[in-house]
Amino acid sequence: MKPAMETAAEENTEQSQERKVNSRAEMEICRNHWMYLGSKNHQYSPLPTEGKRLNPLSHPGCFECCIKCLGGVPYASLVATILCFSGVALFCGCGHMALAGTVAILEQHFSTSTSDHTLFSEVIQLMQYVIYGIASFFFLYGIILLAEGFYTTSTVKELHVEFKTSACGRCISAMFVFLTYVLGVAWLGVFGFSTMPVFMFYNIWSTCEVINSLQTNGTAAVEQICVDIRQYGIIPWNAFPGKICGSTLENICNTSEFYMSYLLYIVACAGAGATVIALLIYMMATTYNYAVLKFKSREDCCTKF
């Protein structure tokens, strides 16, 4: 008689061979079944007729993807960014050229001594450098706010699973809300400051209109109508001549530098107003996004517990 261990080993060998045969048979059956189904699915199908042709826009996946992408666009931030870029460009470009024209008019007609308008020229040059910095800062800040609007809009509407609220994201949104409020208040001051040269040039222009009307009526009191630029604080009171009267003032108003500077100041003031409106839109958009993100974070915490 064979030992018990040898008998058990032979039985295990026979069982493993039977399993291999069975598994091979099952694999062959599955392969034949798969080939049969593949040949059945790839049968010839006739081309759709003209009335039954598929419309590429009717595909639900493409349409839903487009709607999803359009739903994630922060339209308020987009409008505010366009308005902000336009306003800052008008304010900086036109303001820079108008300041240069103002210095030229002052040096040629109202202050013959260089020492009288040295301080004013230095202030104008400093303001021109500040304009360069404002343009660069708002270009970057507008792009950052637009990107933040895309992120928060996608998070609020839950368009992407990977976009979720976090404490860091809410802190960044709160920082943008605070910074936008500060910039809005600052630009209200800039808008008010930009109206001052418009007011000054308007007074000079209206005085020239009075002189023209008096000359048309034949009145001889034209030389008594004057404009004293020293009363605006631009140059000191001992500056010469400082005051221009009559026909000399009319000649200044007829120069291209005067009209160009006047129009540029008006456009710069309008640009500052457009920037204020853009910052107000930014305030509303960022505040709303922050409030919704904070509410969603509280809702998520409640659902966890």
From TrEMBL:
InterPro entries (alphabetical): Myelin_PLP, Myelin_PLP_CS
Keywords assigned by UniProt, alphabetized: Membrane, Transmembrane, Transmembrane helix
Protein name per Swiss-Prot or TrEMBL: Neuronal membrane glycoprotein M6-b isoform X4
One term under GO cellular component: plasma membrane
Transmembrane segments: 78-106, 126-151, 172-193, 262-285
Compartments, record wording: Membrane
Chain spans, region Disordered: 1-22
PROSITE patterns assigned: MYELIN_PLP_1, MYELIN_PLP_2
UniProt GO molecular function: structural constituent of myelin sheath
Membrane protein topology class: Multi-pass membrane protein
Single GO BP term: negative regulation of serotonin uptake
Family according to the record: Belongs to the myelin proteolipid protein family.
The species this protein was found in: Enhydra lutris kenyoni
Principal location: membrane
